[in-house]
Amino acid sequence: MERQELKRAIEGILFAMGDSVEISRIAGALDIEEEQVCEIVGKLSDEYEADGRGIRIHRLEDSYQMCTSPDIYEYLIRIAKQPKKAQLTDVLLETLSIVAYKQPVTRAEIEKIRGVSCGHVVSRLVEYGLVEEVGRMDAPGRPILFGTTEEFLRAFGVTSLEELPSLNPIQVEEFKLQAEAEAAEALDVEV
What we know:
The chain is an alpha+beta fold. It is 56% helix and 14% strand. The protein has helices at residues 3-17, 23-30, 34-51, 73-80, 90-102, 107-114, 119-127, 150-155, 169-190, and strands spanning 21-22, 55-60, 63-68, 105-106, 131-136, 144-148. Strands 1-3-2 form a 3-stranded antiparallel sheet. Strand 2 and strand 3 form a beta hairpin. Helix 2 packs across helix 3 and helix 5 crosses helix 7 (119-127). It is elongated, with a radius of gyration of 26 Å.
């Protein structure tokens, strides 16, 4: 491998990994000596400094990590202070609970349960990373099936869907009767 290609590979590895990467792992991946890794990283580091780039490479004992140049911390702080996650409204939580308990589920099934259109709500849950497309139903039109994500598990502090609270069958039946009554009232109003 040519020197320029080695430099590009090391830069890519450090960027993609995010955390520190042991010199021995880099050397092993590129099939070169550890000393050569140190020499190339030294050159890269010098280039970043000379060019005034916003990134630096720091050595941490026997590893390297790509990080931000200290002179741009002020800008990072401005970004970090911005709100990261939006609050989940009752509508979002209701839809999310349907997906969590009924998954994989189509948008039409969610709408049937909720009784209203929910395309925008499902899109918002996908945008938040709580719901994702998990496949397509083997039916006409091949509707998208939705399920929850790892981010959903993290956000709600559970390690698996089995840890979600179980639904009381009596309450489920009461909810079902209540929903049917509301649907019947809505039909009477429309007529």
